Each structure stands twice: as C-alpha cells, then as structure tokens.
Amino acid sequence: MEYTMPLVDYLLTDLEAYLWFCSLDGASGFWAIMMTLRARKISAYVCALGHFEWLRMPFGLNNAPMIYQRMIDNALWGFVQPKGGWQHYATLMRAAEDRAHQLHDASNELLLTEFGPESTSRTKFQAYRAASTVTDPVTELVNSPIADMLSNGETDESALVPVFDRRSFVDDICFGGSTFDDCLATLDRLLSRFEECRISVSFTKSIFVQSRVDFLSHEVSREGIRADPKKLTAITELSFPTSKKGMQSFLGALNYYSRFIQDYAVYGATLYQLKDADFGSDGELTTARRCFETLKQKVADAPILRHFDRTKEVHVMVFANEWALSTTLMQEHEGLLHPVRFSGRVLKDAEMNYHPAEKEVLALLLLLKQCYTQLAGRTLHVYTRFSTLDWIHRTKSLFGRAIQFSVLLSPWHLKVQRVSEKDTAFAQLLQSTITNFVTLEDSLALVAPPTKGSPTVRMDPALLYARLPRDYQGLVVSFDGSANTAKY
C-alpha cells in the first residue's frame, strides 16, 4: 500500500501559539496492530523450529509505518469508522477477547491432561503449534468486513470531528495549548478518542503538560526549537572517519539537523566529494579535516530557532559562492532578526558556471520551495549582494535562464534590498547566531573543495547591465535604443 507520510518540517510548524506542550508515544509500536490472515501468510518465515507466522504486525515490514500512520490519522481526524460505529466494534472485540481467553484456558487444561507435568519442551512446543492453527474469535473479527474498514471492508460515514489540526509521525504525537487548561482539555479529547479507537499510549515514554518537551529528536518550547542536546553531544564526540562510509554516516547525522547550521552545505561540500582513495595513505585530507572540525563546532553552537510567526514580517538573507548555496529565514524579535531556519545545498556541475548573482536566485528558489506553505502569499524582504534578483523580478525583456527565473519568481511579492560590504547597519540587525554573508565570504578561502569542470564563469550579455551595482558611475559610449524596442 501507499500512504503519504508527514514531513518532520511540517510537524515542527504552527507551534508558536503554545505555552504548554504534550509529547505522546504509542505503546507497543507496530505490535498494537493485528495481522490479517493474508498478511500472516505473506510475512511468514521458516527456521529450524518450523514455519512461523506473525500474529501482530512486526517491525521491518516495508509498509508497516504507513499502516500505523493511517491508523493514527484516522483516529485523530475521524475519516471512517467500522460498521455500526466504534462503540459497537469495541463491544464485539471485548466479546471476542473473552471467548479467546476461554479457549486458551481450555487448551492449557487439555495440554496438562494429555502430556502431564513430566512432558518435555519439545512436546509442549508441538502442542502449542497445533493449537495455534485454530482460528480464534479475535482473528475472525479482525478479518471480517467490519474490522477491515480501511481497505475493502464495510464502513460507515464517520461522525467524529478532528481532535486537533495536527498529524503524528507514526507513534509520536506533539501538541499543546495556549494555557494549562487548554492543553489538558486537548489531552482529554485525545485520550478519549484513543480509548474509543482502542489505541494505547505509553505512560513512561510520554510527557504531559510541560513547558519543554522532546519530539522527534528536537526540544520544543515556547522560545523555539532546539536540537536534542544528547544527540549533538554524540556527534561532537565523533573522531574523523577512516572510510567513505563512515563519512557518509557522519553527514547523514548532520543532515537531519542541517536546519540549525547556517552554512552546512558550504562546509559539507568538501566532505561530500571525498572518495575511498582519499582515505588512503596518499590522500590529502587537510581541507576535509578543517571542514569536519568546523561543522562539529557549529553543531555544538547550534542556536535556538524561533517559531515561525504568521503575524510578523519575513526576512530572507541569501548567499552563494562558487560551490554552494545558503539561505537564512528570519523574523524580528526584540529589535533583532532571529533565525527561523537555515537551508542550503551543494551546487551541481552546470550550476557552478553560473554568475554569483544567478546563484543567489537559486538560493532564494530553494527556500521558497522548502517553506512554501509558510511563505505563500506573504511579502518577503530579501537581502542580497547583487541587484540582479530585483531586476529579474521586475523587467519584461528577458531571454534564456533569466526567463525561467522570472517565471518561478512571478507568484511572489519580493522587496529586494542590496547590502554592500560597508553596510554595518544590516550587520547590527542580525542576532549573534547569524553570520553576515560578508563575514562568511572572507572565511571560506581555506575550505574550498576541489573544483569540478571548468572554473570559467559564463555570463549572459542580457544580464550584464543589471549586474552593475546601484552606485556605479560611468559614461555611455553608445546607445542604439534597444531598451525601448521590442525584441520579439
């Protein structure tokens, strides 16, 4: 089956209105879901003791997370319900469980009568295996059209209303309230729904009505989102890997927390290019070790990301160099621009030949794609080193790559502001955890990765004039009037 799984970025949004939080963890995990007869046959396995079939959904099945996610979503949002309603299904299940317990007790008495107390483990195992082939009442109910409501069974239109407008990530659920009583009321509604849908919650692994909770290896509070300190400590204690596989494992751990590292792609590009031969005795790893230590330090100093506030203006700082892109989404708090999230990526081979101004357009498009649901329909204040971004967004005489950029930027309302190297006012607006792109550019000479392909820069003649700075002064040698003449 296919079922859409939620994104972690989506689950960490819309938390700015909460002062109290709850983080719940489902009990028993996938084992809470009983297997149908068909699923038992498909997931069966053979070992030295014989043929075995799973009675509960095990860990490791390809579609197990999607099945569990669908069950939780149906409970939270009330999409469908069994024939006759949840109360009727709960009554049938309790009766089936009581009947199954009676049959189990009867089989145990028969086992003691037939084999006696001196029976071996082998004979007991054979007896239990023979008894397991008998279909119990619970299995019959699970495989009936009443219980199989999400596939091809009989369902009723659900009269349930959503508990709250959030999803879970498999068995992890995070929600909150603006007041203590609101959070308790939401928790009461959720537990009542879970009781109705026969879903259990682990009390020992859940956190109830606290100002700070752990959720998906993040620490969520009123102030914002912080990376899990325990996970960050484990990353910073890692030594430099001795193989490409070890380096990939390190980068994979960092990639999950890349939203907390402003220039992750800038420093990680060198590590991504390493090959197996580079870890040999003849490999040159000086630059790689420097980037490795820099990233570990940045992980240790990972800032608190503020919750995205839909009532505040949005500020974006874009940066691009020869090999990577970096963008910073910011909002103003207490007179300073605080980070909401960082994003970036390594440039492709063809993109390395773009002009730096065009790379900044790519950086902005990357952020608009990642944060579309938050930024759509809003005015964005974009800070850049070049005026090309504003020119592409406004001019009508374009061709080549500029047309593609203009079409992609056309739905957005941008206010582009060029920041020069001598502009100290902008640097003073940034919170201390944000590095100004002028300062960042000066510190990258020692971490540049090996260049791929031609280092030349291909410049479109149509973009040359727009790339001149606003304070440029010069004389017009000749002018043919092409700016006022339609080209097509």
TrEMBL record:
Domain named Reverse transcriptase is located at 14-76
Q: Where is the Reverse transcriptase/retrotransposon-derived protein RNase H-like domain?
A: 288-382
Pfam families assigned to the protein according to its UniProt record, in alphabetical order: RT_RNaseH_2, RVT_1
InterPro entries in UniProt: DNA/RNA_pol_sf, Rev_trsase/Diguanyl_cyclase, RT_dom, RT_RNaseH_2, Viral_Replic_Matur_Polypro
Name of the protein:
Uncharacterized protein
Organism source for this protein?
Phytophthora fragariae
